[in-house]
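Input (structure):
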């Protein structure tokens, strides 16, 4: 069995799971957390954060098949800001979050590993930012866009009126998904959960990614869904 693993939302569509498996990855699914609302209950970016080669995991998640994990201190719960403990956006050696609410163990790991901590009032930083490489990202929050640019990160800013779906059970929610949860880096590729042109009619996203010499994987005809991204386990 491959030692390459990817953490995903258990609700991911079969065609997307199969593509990941065909790339040689073993799939690890985030289990439903009943303490938070349905739409994000098995989102990767709500329960897990990757810091270099370590995986920081919300303590209710069973991740026995991952060796390089550290369990966080705080459990997440439905009421904001207690659902954002692990929703830290990592770009290169920068960590962007509302640091007042970052899980204590996660924050210590960031400090110990020499990350630059960038504080924001926006708590859902990893939801609102799609990281493309170590110095570039796609952003749908004006405040975050300014902060990233101020810290030397190249950004593509898009308005937040994109047609990104969220799942509520097996149906679409009336809530809207976020850019960071529907576009993820896997190996040297960018995976889009659905057909990219459904949120990129002007090809701005495609051009921005291709300028970084990264291959785009998307799924023709499928709606774009926010799964909270994915995390590659080394």
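Output (sequence):
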């Amino acid at each position: 069995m491959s030692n390459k693993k990817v953490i995903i939302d258990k609700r991911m569509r079969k065609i997307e799971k199969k593509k990941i498996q065909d790339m040689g990855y073993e799939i690890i699914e985030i289990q439903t957390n009943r303490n938070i609302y349905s739409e994000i209950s098995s989102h990767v970016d709500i329960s897990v954060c990757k810091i270099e080669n370590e995986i920081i995991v919300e303590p209710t998640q069973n991740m026995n098949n991952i060796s390089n994990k550290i369990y966080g201190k705080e459990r997440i719960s439905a009421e904001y800001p207690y659902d954002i403990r692990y929703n830290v956006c990592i770009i290169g050696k920068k960590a962007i979050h509302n640091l007042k609410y970052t899980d204590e163990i996660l924050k210590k790991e960031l400090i110990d590993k020499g990350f630059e901590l960038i504080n924001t009032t926006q708590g859902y930083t990893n939801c609102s930012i799609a990281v493309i490489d170590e110095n570039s990202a796609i952003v749908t929050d004006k405040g975050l866009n300014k902060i990233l640019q101020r810290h030397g990160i190249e950004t593509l800013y898009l308005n937040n009126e994109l047609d990104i779906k969220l799942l509520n059970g097996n149906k679409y929610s009336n809530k809207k998904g976020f850019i960071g949860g529907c576009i993820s880096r896997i190996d040297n590729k960018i995976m889009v959960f659905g057909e990219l042109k459904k949120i990129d009619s002007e090809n701005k996203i495609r051009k921005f990614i291709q300028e970084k010499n990264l291959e785009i994987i998307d799924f023709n005809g499928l709606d774009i869904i926010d799964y909270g991204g994915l995390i590659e386990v080394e």
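Notes: The chain has one domain: 5-233. The radius of gyration is 16 Å.
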